[in-house]
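User: Sequence in, structure out. Go.
Assistant: Echoing your sequence, followed by the C-alpha cells.
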Amino acid sequence: MSPVPHLMTLADLTAPQIMRLVNHAHYLKQVSLPWLAPQSSSKKSSRLRMPSQSLFSKSIALLFSKRSTRTRVSAETAAVLLGGRALFLGREDIQLGVNETPRDTARVIGGMCQGIFARVGAHEEIEELARHSPVPVLNALSSLWHPTQTLADVLTLHEHAHLFEPALNEAPAANKPLPPLRPLTIAYVGDSTNVLHDMLVTYPRLGHNVRVASPSSPLYQCPKPVWDRVTQLGCDKGIWWGNDPKEAVKGADVVVTDTWISMGQEAEKAQRLRDFDGYQVTEALCREAKPDWKFLHCLPRKPEEVDDEVFYGPRSLVFPEADNRKWTIMAAFDLLFGKWDLAGEKTLKIAKE
C-alpha cells in the first residue's frame, strides 16, 4: 500500500503541485456553484455536472483545538459537496489532551474516519498526529504554517488577474480556465505569523516578489525552522525583509496583513500594540504602492491592523478571499482525503499508461 500522504505546509509541494491544487479548486468552484444557486424550472439539474464525489460515505474528522469561523464552515460545507461528512471534534468534545495522547487519538480517529483536518497550537502537535495516523492529515493551522490560507489567496489573486493586467479586461467567465497571473510584488506588514510563513515558501516559487516589514524585536522575526525551509527552496532570493512598513509597500501590487495578537497572546496585547505602532494599513501608509494596489487579510480583522477605508473599500479582496477558503479546502479534501493524490503522482501514472 502507498505511504499515507499528509500536508503540513505548501513547502512540502512543488510549484506545479501547488498550482494543480489551485486550478482544481477553480474547477470545483465552477462545477459546484450552479448546484448552490436557487433552482428554477428553466434550469434543469440534469444539465449540471456533479463535483467529485470522492468522499462518498466517508467521514473527515475536524480536530480543532482552536476556535474558527472560515476554516470550520469551509471544511463542513466542502465535505458535503464531495459526498461526505465532516465530524467536528473540539477540545471539549474528545479526550485528546485530557486522558489520551495525540498518538492514541490519531490511531483511534484514523480507524474510523478517512481523513484528519487538524487546527492545533504548537506545530509539533500536528506532526505527532501525522506520524501515527493511518489516514491523511491536513494542517488546518498550526503555530508555524497555514497552507490552506495561502491556497485561497493564490486562487483569489488569479481570479482577479485582470486587476493587475489591463489587457485581460475582465474576470474569468464561467467554465473558463483560471487566468495566468503576471509576476507581482506582494507586501506583508505585521507579525511573522503562520500566514506569512506559507507565503514565504510559495510566492517566490510562483514568480512573485515578497516584501516584509515587521518590528525589529526577535519576537517578530521568522522562526528558524521556517526560514530554513525558505532557504532550502531558494525562496529567500525573492524576499526583502526590513522593519519599515512604508519601505515594504513601495511598488506593491498587493498589501497583506494579519492579526498582531494571535490566540494565546492576549497577555501581550499592550506591548504588541506599542510595537506595531505605524503598521496599520491605510491609504497614507501605501502612498508609494502601485496606484491600483489591492488588499488581503485572512480575517478576523481588528481596526488597528487596517482602517475601514481600505478594508471595506474597492482595494479590498478580503471577502472573495474568505469565500475561496471553501474551494481550496474542497480541492485539498478531494485530492488528499478522497484520492490520496495530492502530489499528482497517480494522475501522472495513469497518463503514462
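User: And one key feature?
Assistant: DSSP finds twelve helices and nine strands in the chain.
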